[in-house]
Amino acid sequence: MQKMPVLFIGHGSPMNAIEENQYSSQWEKLPARIPRPQAILSVSAHWFTSGTRVTDSPAPKMIYDMYGFPDELYQVTYSAPGSPHFAALTKELLKDSVSFDNTWGLDHGSWSVLRRIYPHADIPVFQLSVDRLAPAKIHFEIGRKLRALRHQGVLILGSGNIVHNLSRVNWDMNGGYHWAEEFDDYIKSNILMGNLENVIHYEQAGASSTFAFSALDHFAPLLYVLGASDESDHATVFNDSCVLGALSMTSYLFE
Question: Which CATH number fits domain 6-254: 3.90.420.10, 3.40.50.720, 3.10.290.10, 3.40.830.10?
Answer without folding.
Answer: 3.40.830.10
